[in-house]
Amino acid sequence: MNKYLSTLGRVFLAQLFLLQVIALIIGFFNNPNGYLDYQNALGHQGLPGIFAPLIILIQLVGGSALMLGFKTKPAAIAMAIYATFISLALGLSPFQYLAIVGGLLTLAANPTTAFSLDNLKK
Fold first, then answer.
1. Which residue among 17, 23, 79, 121 has its CA within the 20 to 30 Å range from the CA of 94?
2. Number of Cα atoms under 13 Å in the Cβ half of residue 67
3. In a domain, 119, yes or no
């Protein structure tokens, strides 16, 4: 039963990143200046425009890795570092992001979950 709860936790953590990047991409297609607006919004938060594609790439790759259970431990650690950085850099709610980081670190400590690509190797 615990491995199924871990799977559910892994999927919920992954959806945080994947839904955010999907919403960004939809916003880009709905607004002709969407990507430039996103870069400008990051610039107002103190991040240069180069962070726009990096944020999208990290969320897409890291979220997908977590969703599929591929290289779960390194993906969870990388996403924990990313969530900490984004929280500090953008001045987002630190308690919410600490909770996300806590879930990711727990997943990194217990990466064996059901329905993951990592388990196909065994």
1. 23
2. 12
3. no
